Structures are given as structure tokens and as C-alpha cells.
Amino acid sequence: MFLQVKHLKFTFNLTKEDGTAEFNDIKLNRFAMQELAGNVCYVTLRPPERASYLLVIYAKDSTDKVSMNVFQVTVQLA
Q1: Burial 9-47 (b: 16+ CB within 10 A, else e)
Q2: Cys staple from 28: which of 4, 14, 40, 53, with CB 3.0 to 4.6 Å?
Q3: What angle do CA 45, 55, 47 make, to 5 degrees?
Q4: Torsion sign across C-alpha atoms 19, 23, 24, 25
Q5: How far is it, in rounded angstroms, from Cα 41 to Cα 37?
Q6: Long-range contacts (CB closer than 8 Å, 24 or more residues apart) made by 11-15
């Protein structure tokens, strides 16, 4: 069963797997885009080089002041 929430807010953080957050002084978050379409949150990655990246997506019910849900995945570009 899925929880029906009407007011979700999303944000994300993109780093290299080693913790590096920049490429040539540009934040890696600039190489990703998050958008909402209907009931779906899309995250598109266009990383600047082949490497292993860690993508963390945060979701929060805007009516709930305390809790936050986190999804974490490692993306490898060979």
C-alpha cells in the first residue's frame, strides 16, 4: 500500500562516490535536474565525466515539520 501525500517536496545531492562534490570548480548538482510531472519525480543526470556517483534524493511532506524520507543510489558510468 502506498501513502497518499499531496504536498511532497523533493531535493537531491550528487557527489562522486569518494565524496567529491565539484568538477572543475562547478558543483556536481549542476549536472542533474529534478522535475515533477503529475505524481512522478524525475531526476536526470548528465555527469561531466565517467566515474561512480552517489545520488541522494530527499522527499518531505511539506505539512510534516519533522520527518524526511531519503533514497540513495550509486550510479556508475563506464
Answers
A1: ebebbbbbeeeeeeeeeeebeebbeeeeeeeebeeeeeb
A2: 14
A3: 30
A4: negative
A5: 6
A6: 11/57, 11/58, 12/43, 12/55, 12/56, 12/57, 12/58, 13/55, 13/56, 13/58, 14/45, 14/47, 14/53, 14/54, 14/55, 14/56, 15/53, 15/54
Q: What are phi and psi of 3, to 5 degrees?
A: -80, 125
pLDDT at 48 exceeding the cut of 90? yes
Residue 59 identity (one-letter amino acid):
A
What is the pTM assigned to this prediction?
0.75
